[in-house]
Every structure is written in structure tokens, then in C-alpha cells.
Amino acid sequence: MRVNVTVNGELRQADNVWEGESLLYLLRERLGLPGSKNACEQGECGSCTVYLDDVPACACLVAAGQAEGREVRTVEGLADGDRLDPIQESFVECGAVQCGFCTPGLLIQAHDLIERTGDPSDAEIREALAGNLCRCTGYEKILDAVRLAASKR
User: Alpha carbon of 64 to those of 48, 61, 77, 146: distances in Å?
Assistant: First the structure.
């Protein structure tokens, strides 16, 4: 099947998409956007989180065909050209990026949280990021990065 989807503001098309193919596979393998990571393939770790019609979703749980005619924003789409989004800058500044596997999902979730609340409390940050697993950090640098990004608004 053919899938037409707007990704990061650009209409993209993929042919020969198979029935059980995930949106994650479509993004990474067919459209060349490796930012979202393939970790658990069960929606448990959050590494593949993208915006689907402006709502965070685990791309591993969405069939590629379900994205037909919809808008997807990946971690690559947070930046404005070479200019990083404040949440991306803050992750770098705070040392919240280690191996980087969890980072794309954390960035999308944190970006969404800040867009919705402006200045989230620590409890709101923890709740928003609860579905994202990181095995490298103790999460404190990630929390610091979200706080810093919110202060930059």
C-alpha cells in the first residue's frame, strides 16, 4: 500500500508499505528519519515517541497505514533548521543526554508538557516523563533540563 503522511511539515510518500508495518519502521527505514529509536516495540519505554496530530504517541504501536493523511512531528522536527528547540538546548546544557537512546522520546514528551503547561511543577514533569525509561542517568539531569527549558519560555 502507499502511505501519504506529512512529516515535520513536509508531505512524504512511501510505497509498498506492508500491512503490519509500524509508523516507527516507516519513519526510520523508509523515510530516513532515525531520530525515534526502536527499543521495546511494545510501547513501554517511550524511545519512539513522536507527535501524531499534535499528540504524543509511541510510533511502535501505530500501524503505518493509520498515519495516512495525518501529521507526524519527530524529534528532528523540533529544531528550526540548525536552531535547536529550547528543550533540545537544555538537554545538552544540563548533560541529560548520555547514550541518547531514550532522548528522542523524552524530548517530545517534555516539549509537549512545556507547551501545555508553560512552567510545570516537579510532580507534573515526573508524571509526564513516567512512560520514558532511561538506563543511563538518574533522571535528575533530565528533570533539570525540563526545568531549564521551561524557564527559557
Answer: 14, 9, 18, 30
SS3 71: strand
* pLDDT score recorded for residue 86: 97
Is the predicted pLDDT of residue 136 greater than 90, yes or no?
no
The SS3 assignment for 110 reads helix
The whole-angstrom separation of Cα 109 and Cα 107 is 6
Q: Give residue 139's identity as a one-letter amino acid code.
A: Y
The DSSP line for 4-43 is: EEEETTEEEEE-S--TT-BHHHIIIIIS----S--S-SSS
**CA angle, 27 then 144 then 79, to 5°:** 35
Three-state DSSP class for residue 104: helix
Answer yes or no: are the C-beta atoms of 76 and 85 closer than 8 Å. no
96 within 8 A of 141, measured Cβ to Cβ? yes
The Cα 28–Cα 147 span in angstroms is: 30
Specify the pLDDT at position 126: 97
Residue 137 pLDDT > 80: no
